[in-house]
Amino acid sequence: VQLVQSGAELRNPGASVKVSCKASGYTFTSYYIEWVRQAPGQGLEWMGRIDPEDGGTAYAQKFQGRVAFTVDTSRSTVYVELKSLRSEDTAVYYCNRGGSGDWGQGTQVTVSS
Q1: Whole-angstrom distance, CA of residue 13 vs CA of residue 105
Q2: pLDDT digits over 49-72, tens only?
């Protein structure tokens, strides 16, 4: 099983960012993909999950209205897009296969002017 994420991103405050997570080595539609982030010096923060089978999503209340998860089953890839970025969104963003110990390598997102 592999989850490979896109590379580091640098954005200005107010911009948007989209991070990808490409899955391989298992039946893509059989497991949720969760998104978690870790800000500098902070613990892990759950952002939500997406069901690749039907695109159904669940978002942590904190991110409601500002985050969107999407899926491209033809590419076995899920995406997280975060809008209206602020400095507090600076973090490493991870995808993981729900209910397993399989994680992506992480994507550093830095929000700075």
Answers
A1: 25
A2: 999 999 999 999 999 899 999 999
Cα distances (angstroms) measured from residue 50 to each of 20, 41, 58, 62, 113? 13, 27, 7, 16, 31
- Among residues 2, 32, 37, which one has the least CA distance to residue 17? 37
Strands 107-111, 9-11: pairing is parallel
d(CA 29, CA 57) in angstroms, rounded, equals 14
b/e 25-49 (16+ beta carbons within 10 angstroms → b): eeebeebbbbbbbeeeeeeeeebbb
The DSSP result for 16-31, as a single string, is -EEEEEEEESS-GGGS
Give the three-class secondary structure for 3. strand
Q: What is the pLDDT of residues 62-104, one digit of tens each?
A: 998 999 999 999 999 999 999 999 999 999 999 999 878 899 9
